[in-house]
Amino acid sequence: MSTIEFNSHFDSLQHKLLPFAYRLTNNVEDAKDLIQETALRAYNNKEKFEVGTNFRAWVTTIMRNTFINIYRKKKNRNTTSEPADSYVFVNEAHAVDNCAYSNMMMMELHKILGKLDLIYRKPFLMFYEGYKYEEIASMMELPIGTVKSRIFFARQKLMSNIQLQYAYTTTMN
Prior knowledge:
The chain is an all-alpha fold. The protein is built from seven helices and no strands. Helices cover 80% and strands 0% of the residues. Helix 2 (28-44) crosses helix 3, helix 5 (118-128) packs across helix 7 (144-172) and helix 6 crosses helix 7 (144-172).
């Protein structure tokens, strides 16, 4: 992909990236910074983009990974740059439990998502990744009403399955 092609594709996509970046950062300025960092990383790796594949999906993947990397760096920087008198004692056993609990919850969520039929799971995940209903409809070659109803049904099914799982877990304890 040439520089001109890359710039053209990225410029047309940039306004669509802001909502996804904002969902990740919860801050407009950080979202704009994330888009700039994503543009730089995507440009530096533009030769890895396979022409004919989904450019937006490629860029949003780079954005998500960039956000994760930035988050990890900030987290590490915050833990190492605090003055000694500002330390707060933390029960590390609970911190490990919370991390393990979070990992278990994510595994459960992925398991529940995996139980959804593909016709419901695919549009739901695309919507979760930041695609709009119209974009999902055109990519999946479906009417927009069908896309909306499948996403709605996926949400309902997920909530139902989570409630069932939670009810089962609490009765077992």
